[in-house]
Every structure is written in structure tokens, then in C-alpha cells.
Amino acid sequence: MSSTAAPPPSANASPAPGRSLSAWWQATPLTVVFALFFLIPLALILMVSFWDFNEYELLPGFTFKNYISVFDGCSNMADMCTTLRTYLSTFKFCLLVWLITLVIGFAVSYFLAFHVRSSGVQTLLFVLCTIPFWTSNVIRMISWVPLLGRNGLVNQTLMEMHLVDAPVEWLLFSDFSVTLAFVHLYTMFMIVPIFNSMMRIDRSLLEAANDSGASGWQTLWNVIVPLSRTGIIIGSIFVITIVMGDFVTIGVMGGQQIASIGKIIQVQTSYLQFPLAAANAVILLAIVLMIIYGLTRLVDIRKEL
Amino acid sequence: MSDSLPESIDASTAANVKRRSLLKGTAGILAAGVFPAIHAQEKIVLRYLGTAVNQDKAIAEKFKADTGIEIQYVAVTTDDVTKRVVTAPNSFDLVDTEYFSLKKIVPTGNLKGIDTKRIKNADKITTLFTTGEIGGKKVGDQGTAPKKVIYLEGEKSKVFAKSPTQFMSLIPTVYNADTLGIRPDLIKRPIDSWAELLNPEFKGKAAILNIPSIGIMDAAMVVEAKGLYKYPDKGNMTKKEIDLTIKTLIEAKKAGQFRALWKDFNESVNLMSSGEVVIQSMWSPAVTAVRTKGIACNFQPLKEGYRAWAAGFGLPTTLSGKKLDGAYEFINWFLDGWAGAYLNRQGYYSAVLETAKAKMEAYEWAYWMEGKPATQDIKSPNGDVLAKTGQVRDGGSYEARMGGIACWNAVMDENNYMVQKWNEFVAA
Predict the structure, then answer these.
(1) CA-based, 20 to 30 A from B285: which of A20, B65, B343, B397?
(2) Which of A266-270, B40-44, B179-183, B218-222 has the lowest mean pLDDT?
(3) What are the strands, taking DSSP E only, across B297-421?
């Protein structure tokens, strides 16, 4: 993520104006922070992932054992191995959450950017969107439990309206509740960048489309969507990276029964199997980086920003 | 000299310049080491690492009132306690952990053997820990029974001693025997076997502990109760036995048996009190917590027996000087009765029964320890009514309950494999 957000080195633009010594100095603080808190720890994780371990200590060395054990049994096609199964379930949530947050995020941003005329109301509504973020993640999640539970508000209402005879069980501790919580928690990460890029769209383009006789849908599809692409991609990167690494939401809302790669890593670290956890983390990182690489192929973020 | 210090500080608030020069002077005296009176009064703060369950505010407050030493609680999960002791032994002054974790901790050399000569009530610690007996009768010792890991060969030893020595790895604090918790109002029939946990009758309404090393023991109790297999030692399974146990769990999970898995005390309380779950493996104080909400919940004695656990205080190797003395003072205070009585009233058992008994009312002792019907309402330490007059404690007397231990929480030799298989169960 950081690589995509890094300032443009402007390789294809005009020759950099001030690539002098002072520019390097200015970049130093960030470089140091970046190296200290990101690159070095990452290198350590990579190193540890090749170490051996026993119950209570790490044994420096070089072994592929951890990686082999991550993919243990994955050659057996009949019964999928834990790792593949876990990734599959994580991908499923990723895709679902991405789609839903994208649709909602786009709609909300569209409304805020094009339908709300006064900038005061715009700001007010935007702040309104952030209200759920005034409490902690976990509290926002847990507040769903009494609502969706077997004896929760939703089930009580359904029963009283005689729509169902017995409480609906799939509302809580299910794929549904996990997806719901994710959407609730992370739609904001879609709204902000999409809204941001929509606000940069030159309004005269819309008028031009209108004057040329484009219908509302045509304007939306041929003008607004392409011009909001940067926001969409940035929002997607946020949502996908969060969902790929999450273990808290899946744990709480899935009743701890749904596997996630983050959860496996967490269990392994709590049993002092750091090398195994590191191997898993390296694989997860590689996969997330590949997804991000794929997404950035779709849009030249450097140019768009 | 020490008397003059508070005065001088008072005066200094009026005149800032004066304060500075005074502080300088004090610092100089301190540096010269000629200020012993102040040093002796230095406030001791003990960082107490453990799970939230055992870290009671009232205990810390009472201890501070009695001795002036402050307890600072560092609350993490069972697994994280071990992780902290192994990876960051300088981040605490006293650890409250379970005996089964010792197999991972002691070989690192991060724990100091506790000198029983400095523990006043050391010889009164219940025989359950020292010899594995209750009332002269042997109890089950499958798994990591405390008697196997309680003694160290020396103060700095990394191996367990086979017979009693002067040095203990942990001084026992609380222990109990766990079983299934049920909602009698929602089940409406007697439950008497661990096998009921996987009974399809409770499909979608059962839960199991998602702490692999404990959860697998509960699963093993179920496997034996269903007559699928008899383990030579449930607390130390072979790979084949682990496969069998996890397979049973996976089959049940795929059939939709479990509503949720729980990892933390509060989760289990919430699952039970909200009625999401009607039967689950549970901890005794969690049952108490459900009951204090006015919801019926039984800590159900089962014919196959209990899965026991025990926790105790350990000291990090690096602890020395005043803090070490403070830690010993805390341990001595803890075994001296007040804390023991407090814990007994929560449904735990205390390590030194004699001193706890002295601090409990006769009717309380009869209810909690002797399994007799309550002659008046039984209240928790914070005043909630736990049992009405005439009720009897689940599981009966101390001897009946702790005598019925089938196995102890354990760390297996095949622990890594077990965790890997457990992840498979969660992913299934």
C-alpha cells in the first residue's frame, strides 16, 4: 500500500526540477521511519519464517519446513487442505464485501457529490457518515449481537409479526453476520476516496454530456465512473487489504467458527509457533501484494493523483 | 530525616525556586546513598501478569490496605500469559499462570524457583498439589497434573524434580474442576454425560472452548463418553489419537452442532445468558456470572468426571531486592486466608484450606466446601445472591468434586501437531 501512496518520482514527466541534495534530505525522515517500522520488521519476519522452533524457543537456521507445513496435504484434491480452504473462505468474504461496499460507497458518494448542492450540507452529511467511527471497532461489532441473536430484536420482531415460527438462526454467527459487520465497518473506506475523486470531476463535463444528449445512465457510466476510477481503486485496496488480514471481525461475528488466515496466524503466535506464523504472514503478504499489483494495473494512480 | 521531607515539599509549592534547590539537594543526598529512610519507604508496585479472571480489584485493594504494596494488573488471555513469560520476562514482577503452561515456561529458565522456606503456609498447601491425593485418595493424573511439575530441582533449575524439594515452580492459588455448563430451563431433562455435548438434540446450540490445549481435552472427554476410544492419557495424545479426536469434532461441526466457539470468559457468559447456547464446556465462575444475572445455569457434574485446572504464582528470574520481597509478601498474604475465603466464595478453591476456613462463616464453609444445603442465602463477594437457602452446590463437596478429576489441562508432546489439527477443525 505504501508503495502506491508514495510521492511520484515522475519518471516519465519532465525532468525533476530539484533533485538536489536538499531533496534527499527532505526524504530522509520518512525513509528512516519507513525502514525502521516497516522494512526491518518485514525482513525479520521473512528471516524467522525460515527458522525452526520447538515448544519454547526459536532455533535460528534455514529450513523450508514451515512453508511445507503450511501447504501440508494440499496436493490431495479430494479433501481440500486447511490453508486452501481458509484462503477460499477469506477470498469469498473479500469479494462479497468489496462488491457491497463498492455499490453502497459509490451510491452514497454520488449522492453527496452531485445531489447535495450546498457545501455546508455536504460537509454535515459527510461528518454524519463518520459518526459510527467515534466508537471502537469491537463495540460496533458487538452491538450487532443483541440485535441478530436467537432471542434478539430482529427475531423477536419477526416472531411477533408471525413471519417465522422459529427464530432465524443464520442471522448471527454466520457468513451473513460477518459480511454485514464488514460492510458496516468498512464502507466508509470506500466513500472517502470515491467522494474525493468525484469532487474533482469538472462539472462542465457533465453539462457537456447533457448537452450532447446523453441520458443519466450514459453520463454515469461513460463520464462519472471512469473519472472516479482512482477513488474506486484506492477504496478497493483499503477494503481488500483489511478483509484479507482480519481476524477480529470474523472471530466475533462468526462465532469463532469461520476460518481466516489472520486467525490462524494469531493462534500460532499464541502457541509460540512464530516461524510458522511468519511463513503464513509472508504468504498472505505476497497474495495481498499481488492483488494490489493487479488493481494498480487498472489505473495509473501516480498519474491520476 | 524522613519526617522532614513532606514538610519541605509542602513549603516548596509556595516557593518554586526553593523547591528546585531542595530537589537538587535531595537528589544529591540520594545519590550519595545517605538517605536510607527514604529508600525503605519507596513505594513498591508489583506488575501482576495473568488472565482477567483471577485479577480481582478487591484483592488488590485489600492487599494494599494491609501492606501498602500496590498491585498493578496486566490482564491478557491464557495463551498470551505463556507468550509473555517466554518472550518478555522483564515485563512483570509476578505471574499468575496455569500449571500446564509450565512445560513451555520452565525450560526457558525465565522462572525462579520459589523458596518454600520463605512461605509461611507452604506445608499447609493442599495435598492435591504436593502428592496428588485428596483425603488420602489418589485422584486422576492424566495430563499435566500439578504434582508432576510443582517442584524444581533448584532455584535456577530448568527441569522438574521427581520428588519434593525446597523449590516450587508455582505456588498454587486457585484451582477447580471444569465440566459442562447447561441451561436447565432450556434443556428440561437431566444431563449426566460428556457425550451430550455432541448429542444432535442440541444441534446449533452447543459450544466448545477455542483454546486448543483445553478444548481438545473436553473433546477427548466426549470421545471417551461416547465409547469411541479409550485414551491411555488424554493429556498426552499420539498423532493418531489427535486425528481421531479432531475428526470427531469436525464431523460434529459439519453437521451444524456448534453455535459458536468461545475463547474468553465473557464470551462464554454471553453465549449462555443470551440463550444462543444451551450446553457448552464452561468455567465455574462463568456459571456463577450467568446465575448472578438471574438466569438458571448448572455447572453439571457428569459421570465421567471433571477436567481439572490449577493456577499459581510464579516469579521471574530477574526479580530481586525490594520487589522480590514484595512478591513474597504478596504470596504469603494470599495464602493467609482472606484471599482464599474470597476465592472460595466465587466458587474456586483456595490452596490453603485451613486459613480460608478461618475467614469464612460456618454456613458458607458448609455450603461451598462440604456440599451441605445452604442454611441461609449464599452471596458472592460483591453481594449478589448466588444460591437461596436450601440449595446445594453443583458437584457437592470439595472431596466429591476434586476427587472426581478425570484429567488435567495439559500441554502435549505433540502440541504443534495438535494446534495445526485444531486450525483444521476451525476451518472445516
Answers:
(1) B65
(2) B40-44
(3) 298-300, 306-316, 349-350, 378-379, 385-387, 405-408
Which of A202-211, B33-42, B90-99, B361-370 is predicted least confidently? Answer: B33-42
Q: Which residue range is the domain that position B85 belongs to?
A: 45-176+308-368
The whole-number average pLDDT for the span A239-258 is 90
Which element (helix H / strand E) includes B70?
strand B70-75
**One-character DSSP codes across A26-38:** HHHHHHHHHIIII
Domain for residue B20, yes or no? no
Pair (B92, B70) in one structural domain: yes
Chain B residues within 8 A of A267 when measuring between CB atoms = 212, 419, 422-423, 426
pLDDT digits (tens, 9 = 90+) for B230-249: 999 999 999 999 999 999 99
Structural domains of chain A, ranges and CATH numbers in brackets: 78-304 (1.10.3720.10)
Q: Name B75's bridge partners.
A: B50
- Which of A86, A151, A264 is nearest residue B274 as measured by Cβ atoms? A151
Q: How far is A95 from chain B (nearest CA, A)?
A: 19
Closest-CA residue of chain B to A54: B416
Q: Which residue has the cell 527532505?
A: A26
Report the mean per-residue pLDDT for chain B: 87
Q: Which of residues 254-283 of B touch A (CB under 8 A)?
A: 258-263, 267, 270, 274-276
Would you call A259 and B423 a contact, using CB atoms and an 8 Å cutoff? yes
Mutate to test the interface with A, among B104, B105, B276 (most CBs of A within 10 A): B276
Flag whether the pTM goes above 0.90.
no
Note whether B313 and B268 are same-domain residues: no
